């Protein structure tokens, strides 16, 4: 009976770990397509918003990209919030004159606070949110606004393409993870709603913009309000954004802990509204977010179950298996490329996410951020 329970625990752990990446996508593919219903009408106006902190290195390329977007779409309003930068980021933005409306924060107050300040001043019908280190393709704005021809569409996500995936195993794993994430969003969009956006590129109708505390993850909170309002949150494949990957494990670990902590805090804040969503949207949310947040715990319980089973079969088998795992991890830690390094980076990502969730469960969260030095 003990062997049966250990085997069941190992199987459940394995299925739960793989669920967001294998089983959930397969289920999505069986769901019917929900087409959009565009109508003829005026093209809405738009405001593009971003927050920055100590992004002086990225700002020249960002500002050139914004000038290009303004040339393609002259009516685009651009607003930026400088979160108390100490490297001259705000001065670089201010030097662009009328290209960007700059709001300087009094000190470190966080992205959520900054975005609320920008949204309160924006005049466009559509609010477009992006990051200070993200570059948009020339037709991104027009392609994004075209999706709002369907009155049922309340929010539109873009497609993120990462740069620098070959620079380290950390970057390679991050790139693979994001390609899977993009495909999941495509399938979710095809079948109804995408369940949440990230901050690289997404938009909503300004009339839907919610009020929320500074401690939550603003991109998840703001995008989910579209679903709560009974509108569609969809993804546009032809709205392309580009961002450079983080290449150092230390930077990526801190980033994932911060994001996971704020995501769980946001989940707690949104829980009453999440419970009122349609059944299909609750299923999507649980599959792509909740199950993934606890992936590290599933890996840990699966490893314990596998070790206990091996010990019951043969102590020698347990010792050989444990030594093999230790050697693989040791090799992965000491290298920056190759399959062993990639495996270690996957485990690090799961550990960081679990640590962030555990941190949020104790009531702690993170309201400010520091840009990764290894981008």
UniProtKB/TrEMBL annotation:
One of its GO terms (molecular function) is glycosyltransferase activity. InterPro entries: Glyco_trans_2-like, Nucleotide-diphossugar_trans. The chain crosses the membrane at residues 6-27, 290-310, 316-333, 340-358. Keywords: Glycosyltransferase, Membrane, Transferase, Transmembrane, Transmembrane helix. Residues 47-209 form the Glycosyltransferase 2-like domain. PANTHER family: POLY-BETA-1,6-N-ACETYL-D-GLUCOSAMINE SYNTHASE. Belongs to the glycosyltransferase 2 family. This is Glycosyltransferase 2-like domain-containing protein. It comes from Sphingobium indicum BiD32.
